[in-house]
Amino acid sequence: MNERLARLLLQKRGPDAVMLVVLFLALFFGLIGLAVHFLWVVAIIVMALGLGFIVADSRRDRIDIANERTERAHVDAP
């Protein structure tokens, strides 16, 4: 009777250990997925900001060129 009880307890520990490993791996890979997802979000935000700065800088350059042409036209005209 004691042998049978010992075997049942050993069998019970086996699946618990496997379940613990599976849960740990799921948590680990879930955290990695969260970190990777977070980095994707950060990368998209940084790219959007960079694109916005590029567009604003090119617009500012066009405005400066137009202002220079206007000043030259006023200086050249008597």
What oligomeric state best describes the polypeptide chains here? Answer: single chain
**Average of the residue pLDDT scores:** 84
**SSE sequence, one letter per element:** H
Low-confidence segments, given as residue ranges, are: none
The gyration radius over C-alpha positions equals: 34 Å
Beta strands, count: 0
Number of helices: 1
Q: What is the global morphology?
A: rod-shaped
| Residue share in β-strands | under 5%
Distance between the termini: 118 Å
Category from helices, strands and their pairing = mainly alpha
Give the biggest beta sheet: none
Share in helix: over 70%
Description:
By secondary structure, this protein is mainly alpha-helical. Helices cover 96% and strands 0% of the residues. The chain has one helix and no strands. It has one helix spanning 2-76. The radius of gyration is 34 Å and the shape is rod-shaped. The model has no long low-confidence stretch (mean pLDDT 84).
Care to give the gist of this entry?
The protein has 78 residues and is an all-alpha fold. The chain has one helix and no strands.
List the helices and strands and how they pair.
Elements: H1 2-76
Main attributes of the structure:
78 residues; mainly alpha; 1 helix
